[in-house]
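Repro:
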Amino acid sequence: MHTYNYKMTSGPYGIFITIVGDLAKPQDCDCLEKVTDSIMVSFEPGVVVCNEKLCFEDQFSIKKAIQMIDKYCKHKSNDVIAIRINSIQYNQCDFQQNGLIAAMICFCKELLLLECSDVVSWYDTVSHRYEFSFEGQLIE
């Protein structure tokens, strides 16, 4: 089981997201969903997010992050891989959906040992929100 803690604290409040999951063979997973030709995701039964069930928006953000890192997985293997998500925790008061995408990119980069750019983040004093980019593209 792999645990990744994402922290962003450069502004007046912090974003803290913890993702717990692992890499698995597709045949060993329940509830598989194809995200790209080479990556599937499994939201294990009973995945809990902040004491509630996983919502559509969080699933969408996780899949979007996987789509963004997919091109870096091509050289690793010709086999289809499954990323199994067991738990996600964050403070709902300070949460931004694009922060979950950034955290999931970092989780995948670490889990899959990918060679790609880091997520860049900063606090925008005009919008009073954190902004994130990956590979020069704003994460929205």
